[in-house]
Design brief:
- The protein is 43% helix and 18% strand.
- It has 282 residues and is of the alpha/beta class.
- The protein has a 5-stranded parallel sheet with strand order 3-2-4-1-5, with helices on both faces. A 5-stranded mixed sheet has the order 6-7-10-8-9, with helices on both faces.
Length: 282
């Protein structure tokens, strides 16, 4: 009989948020795969439990190499528990490779639901939560970061990102450039911890605030693109939309045609706006 893979959520800050089943799984697992074994030790001490099985590290650097070893244990009937430093495994953390490999071997995969920075930030943001998409971490290089943001410039759903504190000001400035300075957003810092803070406001203001430096673990929630009717799209907005599409790789003719369809306008009107913008800039 094959074993079972258990993905367990761990606290994102307050240890008291640990799901009750986590302690049971820690003591009952044959193998505990942890992103950081030192953090796991601190967690088990805080919970007052002693892992009953073998503890192995499972992080980005050894994920590919260790996955076959864990799958072999699962095939042999082991109960393998996977935990990351905080939140749910696989959500911008190790786990996907192991889940995919287990599924391929027809091994049962289950979860111990727990805290999630994505959902916590989304709920606290004050922004629409009925539809959202998680974008993870943006690229570190400025050009690649702008390119990724342009891909979702017209996304209507609320966007959720993770970001490192030392890159927050650059990320918020890039978001303001692509999405517009007035697009609403929320920066959620140190969720569930002592110095928890949620800073809400337009992207332009948040970028200025972050320029002074921000500490802690960061989740950024950004309002989706507004729905605009033809009467709301002035020439400047038409030109901006064409530029976004061009920078994403579309030819100008195709970009103009697509924007015209979006706006419910004749292609000639969008074309004239682009030409006028070029003349005024020269």
């Amino acid at each position: 009989m094959t074993g079972i893979l258990v993905l367990a959520g761990t606290p994102i800050g307050d240890v008291a948020d640990a799901p009750p089943r986590l302690a049971e799984e820690l003591t009952g697992a044959d193998v505990v795969a942890a992103e950081d074994t030192r953090r796991l030790r601190r967690l088990t001490q805080a919970l007052g439990v002693q892992p009953g099985g073998r503890i192995v590290s499972y992080f980005e650097g050894n994920e590919a190499a260790r996955t076959p070893e864990l799958v072999e244990a699962l095939v042999g009937g082991a109960r393998v528990l996977l935990v990351t430093d905080a939140g749910m495994p696989s959500v911008s953390d190790p786990g996907y490779r192991l889940v995919a490999a287990a599924v391929e071997k027809d091994i049962r995969v289950t979860a111990v639901p727990g805290p999630s920075a994505v959902l916590t930030a989304l709920a606290l943001s004050g922004l629409p939560v009925d539809r959202f998409c998680f974008e993870g971490f943006l690229p570190r290089k400025a050009g690649e970061r702008l390119g990724r943001l342009r891909e979702v410039a017209e996304e209507r759903r609320t966007l959720v990102y993770f970001e490192a504190p030392h890159r927050l000001d650059a990320t918020l400035s890039a978001m303001a450039e692509v999405f517009g300075t007035e697009r609403r957003a929320a920066v959620c810092r140190e969720l569930t911890k002592t110095y928890e803070e949620v800073k809400r406001g337009p992207l332009g203001e948040l970028a200025e605030w972050a320029a002074a430096g921000v500490r802690g673990e960061i989740t950024v929630v950004v309002e989706g693109a507004p729905e605009k009717g033809p009467e709301e799209l002035d020439a400047q907005e038409l030109v901006r939309r064409v530029r976004v599409r061009e920078e994403a790789g579309e030819r100008r003719k195709e970009a103009i045609a697509a924007v015209a369809v979006e706006a419910g306008l004749p292609k000639r009107e969008v074309f004239d706006a682009v030409v006028a913008s070029k003349r005024s800039a020269s």
